[in-house]
Amino acid sequence: EERFENKFDWFKDSLVEVRGVMLNMAYQLGFRGFCKFKKTIAYLEEAEWELASSEMLDSKWAKQTPNRAKELSEIIKSL
Length: 79
Known about the structure:
Elements: H1 2-7, H2 16-29, H3 31-35, H4 38-45, H5 49-57, H6 60-64, H7 66-77
Helix pairs in contact: 2-7, 4-5, 5-7
């Protein structure tokens, strides 16, 4: 979590669901891999849940692990 707090000043104050999804993605992709989701991260920061959710699904990651991607994107979409 410390890496997230250092890179994203808004992380600590974001919803627990958002933090959980970000950490889950980083666990699978690695921190650097997660950081490549620039549009998704920007939408999460702005609380644009629908846009963040669709960006998550528009990725190679979503094609490779569709169940996890769908599950995590649904969490974001429901906010």
